[in-house]
From TrEMBL:
Keyword entries, A-Z: Coiled coil, Membrane, Transmembrane, Transmembrane helix
Compositional bias (Basic and acidic residues): 33-51
Protein name: Cell division protein FtsL
Record organism: Brotonthovivens ammoniilytica
Region listing for Disordered, in residue ranges: 33-55
Residue runs in coiled coils: 99-126
Residue ranges of the TM segments: 67-88
Amino acid sequence: MGDYNRRTSNKRVSDRYTYIQGNTVRKLETAPKRVPVRTREEELRLREKQRSAKRNRQNALLMNKGYVIFLTAATIVCAMVCGMYIHMQASMTINMKQVSSLETQISELKTDNDAAEKRLDTTMNLDQVKDKAQSDLGMSYPASGQIKYYSVDSSDYMNQYGSIPGK
């Protein structure tokens, strides 16, 4: 028994002088907080408040018929708005694809038109056309009295309501 006391006493002494590393450091115990003593009236008021708070929580958790109808209507409206949004997004995507397709067609037609115009320019000699018009058809350049000028206000075309005056 004396040997046991000597070992425990040696252990206690060694525990006092031992360095502890890491998160194994012991925490000091604190004294419990003192709760003030309530009177009987305060205790009754506190219990009544707790009961009324519990009743209010229970009433808040209950869903009556009007609330369920309101939530159902709100859910239906949200679903309809989401559906309309998805439908509009889909139609916008389709329209964008159509616009892209039409722009591609316009680009191809412009390329074809430029190629045809280039082909006409290379096959046609304007000097030959001028000679043919003057010699075979008897055409000539107009004299200064034969030229009539028309003014156009703001549009890029003109409607003819009568015949053009002749000579």
